[in-house]
Design brief:
This protein is an alpha/beta fold. Helices cover 39% and strands 20% of the residues. The strands form three sheets. Strands 1, 2, 3, 4, 5, 6, 11, 12 and 13 form a nine-stranded mixed sheet that branches. Strands 7-8 form a two-stranded antiparallel sheet. Strands 9-10 form a two-stranded antiparallel sheet. Helix 1 links the parallel strand 1 and strand 2. Helix 7 packs parallel to helix 9 and helix 8 packs antiparallel against helix 9. The mean pLDDT is 96.
């Protein structure tokens, strides 16, 4: 049951100083190692780790590979070391005592489960769920992600209402435990995504392969969030829109593909003009346009034959609803009211 808790770092000295002590304190034991995989940082983060926590293993990269390829290369470096589970852990996550035990126990007792996440709460307000994953994630028919505890910008207070372990479509990349053999069998994270929504794509592929993804709320951690790119940043907008389209192209069932992609064309441009006319953000308007252009180019080049010969079927966790319609027209903004 050997586990590697892997923190991908890029100039994250401040976060490491704040949160690595609790990760080491509550994670390291005879069956768990804490690993820092570094994307060519130029600050003193690795110097700090080496001096303060010499037990942590450090993997150094010569360049910044981004989130997806950074983790792929880190796990490949660890592949022959006997780890049964990998944990993708953001550097801005505060873990709690015995946080790993419920996750490992659940995976050990449910061999059809390839990945799971803890309950993700806000580090800034520990009574609230955190945007990036809350208590497990789903997708609507058109590829919009939402969670138990968070729909769009509406984040719920944690009252124990989502404390049952349930199958979900995706688990948050902020704190994601994955069975090593399933990670490699699925091909890992898609490096073409660079960052944003790559964990949703991986979990969707794991579901298509016949595995399950769960949220295990018995474990809980606290996430700062927004540490790399803040909400509303055009680069983040570009990556989210482009990667959402790539994810749909890769994983949609054939019978839904044309309809969903047509609807998304319309909805993406509605969102773009809302950003321009209401939010007065030319940068985000342009980012949506560039994202769609980049998607078309990548679909023709990198993913031209991706769908051919594949048995792509619908999976549990992709719900036959429009979360946009429910949220904005029906005004249902709480997961339990869907």
């Amino acid at each position: 049951m050997k586990t590697a808790v892997v923190i991908l770092n890029w100039n994250g000295a401040k976060m490491l100083r704040e949160f690595l002590p609790c990760v080491v304190k509550f994670s390291e034991d005879e069956s768990t190692d804490v690993v820092i995989a570094d994307n060519a940082s130029t600050d003193d983060s690795l110097e700090y780790v080496s001096k303060a926590f010499p037990s942590c293993r450090i993997i150094r990269f010569a360049e910044n590979y981004g989130f997806a390829e950074g983790y792929n290369k880190a796990f490949e470096a660890l592949r022959g070391d006997g780890y049964k589970y990998f944990v993708l852990l953001n550097s801005d996550v505060e873990v709690t005592e015995r946080w790993l035990h419920p996750l490992v126990s659940f995976m050990e007792n449910n061999l059809n489960v390839a990945a799971c996440q803890p309950k993700l709460l806000s580090q800034k307000d520990k009574k609230m769920f955190e945007y990036a994953g809350a208590s497990g994630g789903f997708l609507d028919r058109y590829g919009y992600p939402f969670c138990r505890g968070r729909i769009f910008d509406t984040v719920e207070k944690d009252r124990g209402q989502y404390d049952n372990a349930v199958p979900v479509l995706w688990a948050t990349g902020a704190c994601l435990m994955v069975r090593a053999e399933d990670y490699f069998a699925a091909g890992g994270l898609d490096a073409n995504f660079f960052a944003h929504q790559e964990e949703i794509d991986l979990c969707w592929r794991l579901n298509i392969m016949g595995h399950r993804v769960y949220c295990v709320p018995e474990s809980k951690v606290y996430h700062v969030g927004g540490g790399t790119l803040p909400q509303g940043n055009p680069r983040k907008t570009f990556l989210n829109f482009r990667n959402s389209l790539l994810m749909l192209h890769k994983n949609l069932p054939q019978q839904d593909y044309k309809h969903v992609m047509r609807v998304r064309w319309f909805l993406d441009y509605v969102a773009a003009f809302k950003m321009l006319l209401l939010d007065r953000s030319w940068g985000n308007f342009a980012a949506v346009y560039k994202a769609r252009h980049a998607f078309k180019k990548m679909r023709r080049s990198l993913y031209a034959d991706y769908r051919e010969g594949k048995d792509i079927h619908d999976v549990e966790g992709r719900l036959p609803i429009s979360i946009l319609s429910i949220y904005y027209l029906k005004r249902r903004k709480i997961f339990s009211n869907l």
